[in-house]
Amino acid sequence: MPKITSDQLAIIAMSMALVVLIELTLFNNGTVFILILGALFLFFSFKKKKRYLLWTGLVLLFFAIINIWTLRLLIIGVLIFILYQYLTKKEQVMEIKSQLANTSNQNILIGTTGAPTESYHWKDIHIQRFIGDITIDTTETILPNGKSIIVIHQSLGKVRIIVPYEVTIQLHYSTLYGEAACLHYAPKQCINEQLHFEDGEMDAKRVLVLYVTSWIGDVEVQRG
């Protein structure tokens, strides 16, 4: 499938918005207020974390959509595309391994050369993906002292993270709909929620912080 550039996507989005605006202006003057009101309810539901605002916004948007033909066609096309992508998705597996730090040593004729205290270095991980499952294995790396961070933004799909036994874990999970299964904690179903899990010693030298956000998707953290 040919890749769509950001300029092409912007043109498509503006064209669709223009078509919807023309229809609203010529044929459905009242529907635009329902559309704007529904969008505002959704915005404040994310900001205030109130479920009744979320459902009110969704109902208003539903009534607005069924009265706008261009939005119906747009949503049908988007849903077909998303369904196709989801059915043909491939799981992204990432195994994080230790990397030798770039060092420069000078030849010393007299004296004692000590072993480096930090043989490996860690780079924080940031992943963004629209559709598909993600598996990240960090058991083959050596985490440095302090906090190491993994950030994952996922729209649709499951995120699975395998972490070392001896490292303290902090998980920050935010989703519209999904399930969180973190280590020995009981799985928790989430609807427009933010969760925080922590496992390990509070004053540990090494802490792995996980930030996972999704629209619809589960998260699973296990030690391996």
Automatic annotation (TrEMBL):
Residues annotated as domain Cell wall-active antibiotics response LiaF-like C-terminal: 110-221
Keyword Kinase tagged: no
Annotated keywords: Membrane, Transmembrane, Transmembrane helix
Biological source species: Solibacillus kalamii
Transmembrane segments: 30-46, 58-87
Protein origin, superkingdom: Bacteria
The keyword Nucleotide-binding is annotated on this UniProt entry: no
Name recorded for this polypeptide: Cell wall-active antibiotics response LiaF-like C-terminal domain-containing protein
Pfam families the record matches: LiaF-like_C
